[in-house]
Amino acid sequence: MHVCQVLQHTAGTREHERLLRQLAEILRAQIRRGDWQPGRMLPSEAQLVQRYGIERTTVRRGLGLLADESWVYAVPQRGWFVADPLPPAPEAPAS
To answer: What distance in Å separates the CA atoms of residue 38 and residue 14, rounded to the nearest whole number?
Structure first.
């Protein structure tokens, strides 16, 4: 692989990681705010792709990150759902 290709791939990977973390934070905030109640289905992957203008793999990895953190879970052939109960809120830093 040529050096330019390696740099482009690395930059693309970093951008992908940034976007999936950004998506996860947006969805996490919407769940915290109550836009989606525990047990409710989230918008489909296709809807999230269209809404945020990102690749489906990015959406899937972002949702996977939220699943790893116990915010959502997948039901095969149905979609992604908000976890019930939600994970505890992070503790405020000690001052």
So the answer is: 31
